[in-house]
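DM from R.C. (forwarded with permission)

"hey, sorry to bug you on a friday — could you get me a structure for this? deadline for the figure draft is monday and I only need the backbone to look sensible"
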Amino acid sequence: MKEEQVKIFESDNLWVSILKMVGPALIAILVMLIYNMADMIFVGQTGDTAQVAAVSVVGPVFNIIMAIAMLISGGGTVLISKDLGAKDNEHARMVSSLCIWAAIILGVITGIIIIALNGTLLGFLGATEDIADYARQYMIILAAGAPFLLLTNMLGQVLRAEGAVKDGLIGNLIGTMVNIVLDPIFILGCNMGVVGAAIATVIGNIIATIYYVIYMKNKAVVLNAKPHYALMKPIYILSIMALGLPNAVSTLLSGFANSFANQLLAQYGSDAIAANAAAGRVNLIIVMVLMGICMGAQPLISYNYGAGNMHKLAGVVKRIIILTASVGAVTTGLVILLKEPIIALFLKDAAVAVQAQEILTILMISSPFLGFFYLGTNFLQATGNAMKATVISAMQKGLLLIPSLFILEHLLGFFGIRMAYVVADFGAIIVSCVLMIMEWNKITARNKNSVNTTYVIEKATN
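My reply, with the result:
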């Protein structure tokens, strides 16, 4: 590990370490947020709510690709950071090579499956007759670029494990800027609509992937794609994926939940789907900022846990709690103040925009507190408790959310669909905090026993 990277992980000033990791990660998350919003914003400028709804309907397919990226990057980031903390660079190289080759292979397989099953998927996703053709075109192009979408998102996260947060940020910026520049050209200038949005997205990810390849060749500490490292222990990819499962499950189930939500919303018309999509995108400003803080700090948790430095580990966790609580309050306040002009970026129809604002108000009941949920899952991942973190993620987006969607829609109609997200969020937050506290108590107990044993041995020896 390079000297400046070691300083980030081993600095005694924990606020400086956290901000150096979280700052670039937050910028990367905001860039990703703009990237996720760009297609819908420029498609919204066409004034065709059917095309806006089509982007929303295909969202769960994008979630599938992102879930696979997180399945690999979540575990890869934890293990590489832990290996570097334990000074085991060779094992870190093996992990990084496995991550890259798994991303390439799974990206190709995923793209083929999505294209082959596009008709069945559209029915499941809740595509109504007036948006089906738009959704099909958008989905097939994204599926064709799946290997690049998967690689870009995976590599952007894994780079943080070796302290290269700036390079990860640059890659994200390059991909996003290319996408943002091409969106208006293809969507509006060439009058391609959702087709242009999909093409711009794929090209942006291709350019970002090229940047990451150049980084690996010239700057990487352990990150590599050398086949012989991956072939040393290919079965180890299962261990990597096990650690990455929590974030992947959360993203995948979020896609399924959105599909069910769109199926329920379809009975209220494509305008309802478009309004819900716009509100969800704006709410992501709060959610992704809080997620970015916790994901950005995760390598610090992994590093100090791997190094056995419990004092610093406690300090990092306490400061993340303070950071997520304060940032959650500030971002929510900003969204409340600016919700009308932001919603207007997505929707030109005034009535649909008002509906979106009402939905957004409901979503913001729980969103400011989601930082505690993300801290809990990232802490459990970083300390090797992938299964517990997976259970929490599955509970939020699956066990709680999906049944709540159907039950509350039946009881409360359209309003109940959005309240289901609030109910699921608070349930998951409570469970996440409880499990994190229980795990922390176990870790501190083990550490005390270890110290006591060492003292007894030294005393007996003397």
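R.C.: lifesaver. The chain has one domain: 3-449.
me: no worries. Residues 3-449 form one domain.
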